[in-house]
Write a structure and sequence with these properties.
The chain contains eight helices and eight strands, in the order E-H-H-E-E-H-E-H-E-H-E-H-E-H-E-H. The strands form two sheets. A five-stranded parallel β-sheet has the order 5-4-6-7-8, with helices on both faces. The protein has a three-stranded antiparallel β-sheet with strand order 1-3-2. It comes from Candidatus Desulfatibia vada.
C-alpha cells in the first residue's frame, strides 16, 4: 500500500528534489501542506501528485492521463470510425480498441483521460473492463462513459456499480456525446 501522507523529507525524495527546495515550495504556498500540533509539516499524496503534474515534473507527470486523450472501445468498426472523426474534429486525440484485451493494452501506452466503452465487446465484457480499470489505483482516475445499444435498467445499474462515470444509449447524437465528454473531462459526473 502506498503512503498517503508524507513528511517534507519523504515528499522531497518522492519528487527527486532537495528538502530545501521542497520547503521553499511549501513556504510560498505553491505546495499545499498542513502543520501538525508539534509544528511539523505533512503533505497529502494527492496534493503532491497534483503539484508534480502541474509542473510537468518527470517521470511522474508522464504517468498521468491526459484530458485530451480518449480511448474508444467498441467492436463495431463503423462506430469507432464515426466517434474518432467526431472527437478529432473537436481537438481530442483518440485511439481505438475492438475488444477488452486490446483496451487493456492501449490504456497502458496511450494513457487516456476518458474511455468510451461499449458494454458488449468480445473477449472481456465492458462490465469487466470497467471494474478492472476502477479497481486499479494506477487507472482508477480514468473517466468511463459506458455506451450500449441494448439499454436495460439492469445493465445500467450493473455498469454504474462497476464504476462507470456516465452512461449513454446508442444511437449517440453528436451534441449529447460531446456534452457528456466535455463534462466528464472537466470533472463533472453524468448528465442523464
Amino acid at each position: 500500500m502506498k503512503n498517503d501522507l508524507y513528511t517534507v523529507g519523504q515528499a522531497a525524495e518522492y519528487c527527486s528534489l532537495s528538502r530545501g527546495t521542497l520547503w521553499r515550495y511549501i513556504k510560498s504556498r505553491d505546495l499545499k501542506a498542513s502543520q501538525t500540533p508539534g509544528g511539523h509539516f505533512r503533505i497529502l499524496r494527492k496534493d503532491l501528485d497534483a503539484f508534480i503534474v502541474e509542473r510537468g515534473m518527470y517521470p511522474l507527470a508522464n504517468n498521468f492521463s491526459s484530458n485530451n486523450k480518449i480511448l474508444i472501445v467498441d467492436d463495431d468498426r463503423e462506430i469507432r470510425d464515426v466517434l474518432t472523426q467526431m472527437l478529432s474534429a473537436h481537438k481530442y486525440e483518440t485511439e481505438t480498441a475492438s475488444s477488452g484485451f486490446a483496451a487493456g493494452a492501449k490504456i497502458a501506452t496511450f494513457r487516456p483521460g476518458l474511455i468510451i466503452l461499449d458494454l458488449r465487446i468480445p473477449q472481456m465484457s465492458g462490465f469487466e473492463v470497467c471494474r478492472l480499470i476502477k479497481e486499479d489505483p494506477q487507472t482508477s482516475h480514468i473517466k468511463i462513459l459506458a455506451i450500449t445499444g441494448y439499454d436495460t435498467e439492469e445493465d445500467r445499474d450493473k455498469i454504474m456499480k462497476a464504476g462507470a462515470d456516465d452512461y449513454m444509449t446508442k444511437p449517440l447524437s453528436s451534441d449529447a456525446l460531446l456534452g457528456h465528454v466535455a463534462g466528464l473531462l472537466n470533472g463533472k459526473r453524468g448528465f442523464n
